[in-house]
Amino acid sequence: MTVEGNMPTPGWEDFPHGADVGIRGWGRTLEQAFEQAALALTGVLTDADIESQTSVEVECDAPDVEVLLVEWLNAIIYEMEVRNMIFGAFKVTINDLHLRGTMWGEPVDQAKHMPASEPKGATYTALRVAQRPDGTWSAECIIDV
Amino acid sequence: MDPSRFTRIDPTTWQIEPTGAMRVPGIIYADEGLIRDMDEKVYEQTANVAMLPGIVKAVYVMPDAHWGYGFPIGGVAAFDADESGVISAGGVGFDVSCGVRTMLTGLNVADIKPVQKELADSLYQQVPVGLGSKGAIVLDPLEMDAMLKGGARWAIARGWGEARDLDRIEEHGQMAGAEPSCVSDRAKERQRREMGTLGSGNHYLEVQAVTEIFDQEAADAYGLKPDDVVVTIHCGSRGLGHQIGTEYLREMLPAAAAAGISLPDRELACAPIKSEIGQRYLGAMRAATNCALANREIIGHYARKVFGHFFQKAELTLLFDVSHNTCKVEAHRTDGAAKPIYVHRKGATRAFGPGHPDLPEALRKVGQPVLIGGSMGTGSYVLAGAATSEKLSFASACHGAGRAMSRHAALRAWSGRQIIKELADRGILIRSPSVRGVAEEAPGAYKDVSAVVMAAEEAGLARRVARLRPLVCIKG
Description:
The structure holds 2 protein chains of 2 kinds.
Chain A (H helix, E strand, L loop, with lengths): L10 E6 L4 E7 L2 H16 L8 E8 L3 H19 L1 E11 L2 E10 L2 H4 L7 E2 L5 E4 L5 E8 L1
Antiparallel strand pairs in A: 1-2, 2-8, 3-5, 4-5, 6-8, 7-8
Helix pairs in contact in A: 1-2
Chain B lengths: L6 E4 L2 E4 L9 E4 L2 H6 L2 H10 L9 E11 L1 E9 L6 E3 H4 L6 E10 H4 L3 H11 L14 H17 L27 H7 L12 E10 L2 H7 L5 E8 L2 H21 L11 E3 L3 H35 L6 E7 L1 E9 L4 E9 L2 E2 L10 H4 L4 E4 L7 E6 L3 H5 L2 E2 L9 H7 L2 H10 L3 E3 L3 H6 L8 H11 L2 E14 L1
Parallel strand pairs in B: 3-4, 18-19
Antiparallel strand pairs in B: 1-2, 2-3, 4-5, 5-13, 6-10, 7-9, 7-11, 8-9, 8-19, 12-13, 14-17, 15-16, 16-19
């Protein structure tokens, strides 16, 4: 587990929650932290490599950056489920609490990805998006699986 | 948690006295060992729920409780609409009407043993599990709305189930008050190809053997004998319920503020029952309940097909189907006369005691079957609702073993392949698309289910009827 205050940039990790799992992404910018959090969400599902075969674009809005993180993660969960895809690369731009995201991935292949618990939704529990004293951003919350 | 933080009413009843903004006490039913092992967050979340407007009597917490979202998992809270009471999307949970059904097979362990492996493979092939699995059923918009209105009745009318099941399903298989128009297109899109799919996480289909009977009269009424084989299914409303939970939680954030409700935790987002959004959520949540009832009916039908292939004369009859993530309007005596209140059960099972008028004739004398899922290795229990549960917990009991360890810690502690092998050596066959998923669900990651059900029995919530051990586990 990475120690706070000693964070290499950018990166992601998961952290424990009673029945489910917490995810945390960090980076030099808010956008990068959101991209890393998305990678952590995929990390909940699989350790396999994911090919960038096709891309999907989404947009979301929220009253603050924390709710925006939940909206972004839930948008990814939605696209995964209805497209039956898994995503391994993300690009985010945020302007005035309006997020545009692109995700790249491939169709789920149970033999290749061996997906573990599929995420049901991102929650407001342990939800935190903040800029650290060194200027880097982190974005985290609990995912219900 | 430190037991000294509670007022100990008796060995299995622990009270959080109302302080600060708490309107009512919190009451946890558990033995001292379970209290000590319980997450500190359970205390905090119980106290937070007790602050919500219109709450009736107390927040009740079951012996399998753990840290949840806003509400503790294993929490029961009821609200009075006439006293500005609220409905909470978080108090129901993302997986609306997640629940358990158990079906009798009329077979015994000796019948299963010779074909156990083939049976496991066939069930795994027939029942779609895990991410990336899609069902054979695709719903167009008309059928989607018919399903959301009709629940298990809809599934049976389409040939995926049997009419005699309906008496053995909560709400007789069809939740009234469902409003498909309150369900978003996105929620429906998530469900379009997911009917009859099991999902993943802690959801499963198990073939189980009865190992022990504790209450002969109830076991006779339920049709359970030692060595009998049953099929148990644990799953919920799939993508549709998850999306409804996600969307209404988000919408209730500003709604709570607009109604002047100060939330100690955003995840407790709620709305007055008597509000436009409160009513809309009820309509959507009831539609999602029908989705879960239909889904379990369809998976039960798949199990029947597979068993019919191996055992021409096998008849799978439904013992019971009960949900543990719900909000229901039920009449309970609070002070004197029975009054309809909105009972949220988040990871708690309805447990009507003997004589309850809603129970079918054959079960009324002994009480409602309360189906408790344990872990893959340790087994499960069938309980019967106790008469005292009405007074103690709005007729509720525990729902499972409850996790003792996070998925993260379980992954570090165990290898999925090793667990599959060890269980196979003990005669338990696991089928899953994910060895990692198996490690996350390792038997050791759960609390001792026997301690949980003993505490529920001692507290007077439900009494033990039978213990089950798995023979086959299909896991998402």
